[in-house]
Amino acid sequence: MRDTLPLLEEIYFPAVRRGKLETLQVNVGYRCNQSCFHCHVNAGPNRTEEMTGDVADLVLEFLRRKQISTLDITGGAPELNPYFRRLAKSARKLGAKVMDRCNLTILEQPAQEDLAEFLASERIEVIASLPCYLHDNVERQRGKGVFEGSIRGLKQLNALGYGRDPRLVLNLVYNPQGPSLPPPQAALEADYKRVLQEQYDIVFNKLYVLANMPIQRFGSSLVSKGEFENYLDLLQDAHLDANLDGVMCRSLISVDWRGYVYDCDFNQMLDLPTARGARERVHLADLLDDNIEGNAIRVAGHCYGCTAGQGSSCGGALKEAAEWTR
After folding, report:
1. In 3-state terms, what secondary structure has residue 218?
2. Strands 70-74 and 206-209, how do they pair?
3. Which of 2, 98, 302, 308 could be a cystine partner for 223, CB 3.0 to 4.6 Å?
């Protein structure tokens, strides 16, 4: 696999500094029951990296001490980590909102038969990846049988009240099929809601549209096809300075399975740890008593994926279509 970091580090990106820390995004491991083409984590069934109980306890201590409002749990398939449920349940007891970035098909995996009930009982917000509402497009991107499994997962969540009960939030995530900007979020969300309800009687709350990052599998594919420079030109040409205020890294830190800290999940996958003086790596334990507001954020060319067009973040688009189309 081609490493795109040397190419990305050569590209200028405007300086960004941290605001108030509101979200702790924790990657509990790279193991997954799927191997998706667009996956910036390069997750899959053969990955073995996994957060230990000690690091999970440190995450909870950080949440408690810093009074962080949101714990965003990701992977891989985060539910495969043996400490996922303990981490989620304990964070809820601390009063934090907990988000589970779920691939939907995990709900049918062995030993996960009661997962949906657990998520509902703890009122955990589900962020479910469904890169299209069309069967063939999903299968092309994520593999045979994934679309049907995803539909069954959504029906299971709906049956428990997700997408209907305001306390049980179900949001979906869209990624483009290739090296293009995602379409306007509001219009695509309307299409998703119409098709999924008409054809499958499925409802959900919001759709998040995310640009594909030129890293890991997707970035390597761009390089091998000679499309890397064109895609970066596309992102740079669509950059809007106004999006810099809303990028996720200003209010979020990303923690890997070992407890090391990054400015965002994408930097984690590029192995670009957050800067702290002369320290090469910063562990979450090092920040228990620190105030990081105002610190510089490490940036490179991939950051244009968050500021291009309507913008892209863990919470979807940053701008409405009317504000960025031109």
Report:
1. helix
2. unpaired
3. 2
Contact assessment for residue 163 and residue 172, using Cβ atoms and an 8 Å cutoff: no
Are the C-beta atoms of 246 and 311 separated by less than 8 Å?
yes
Q: For residues 136 and 94, is the Cβ–Cβ distance under 8 A?
A: no
Asked if residue 168 lies in contact with residue 161, where contact means CB atoms within 8 angstroms, the answer is: yes
Residue whose structure tokens are 């830190």: 253
Q: What is the largest CA-CA distance in the chain?
A: 57
CB atoms within 10 A of CB 160: 16
In this structure, the chain runs to a length of 326
Q: What is the DSSP letter of 238?
A: T
Locate the domains of the chain by residue range. Answer: 5-324
Residue that has been written with the tokens 């009982």 in this structure: 121
d(CA 211, CA 222): 14
> Which uninterrupted H or E stretch holds 233?
helix 228-237
* Cα(118)–Cα(275) distance, integer angstroms: 37
Q: Which pLDDT score, from 0 to 100, does residue 218 have?
A: 85
DSSP secondary structure string for all residues of 9-47: HTS-----B-----EEEEE-BSB-S---TT-TT--BTT-
Token readout for 295 is 């610190």
C-alpha to C-alpha distance for 113 and 19, rounded to whole angstroms: 40
Which class does domain 5-324 fall in? alpha beta
Quick: pLDDT tens for 261-279: 999 999 998 999 997 754 5
- Here the tokens at position 118 are 């657990």
Asked if residue 2 has pLDDT above 90, the reply is no
319's tokens: 């701008």
Q: Using one digit for the tens of pLDDT, what is the confidence trace for 17-61?
A: 999 999 999 999 988 876 555 556 666 777 888 999 999 999 999
Percentage of the chain exceeding pLDDT 70: 90
Give Cα 95 to chain centroid, integer Å.
Answer: 22
